[in-house]
Known about the structure:
Elements: H1 27-34, H2 37-52, H3 58-92
Amino acid sequence: xxxxxxxxxxxxxxxxxxxxxxxxxxxxxxxxxxxxxxxxxxxxxxxxxxxxxxxxxxxxxxxxxxxxxxxxxxxxxxxxxxxxxxxxxxxxxxxxxxxxxxxxx
Length: 105
């Protein structure tokens, strides 16, 4: 299975988590960003399991896929922000620690 890079520009700031539609203004995006990453990952895993089952209609599959992509974008942004924060902390440690990239492959 090949991996498709997730482009942040696909869904922008209106991304939603857990199937909740974005509310007026930035409220929906703010709610999604407050959801713990672990919960978002569990929801993403549940979406994958549903998509792998044969009991899901085409329309449901498309809606689930869209939700999954939006969740993946949110999780990726949060992980990148966490990585940046860790880098800043390490830089402030005045050389007591060093960072190495973690290879997922």
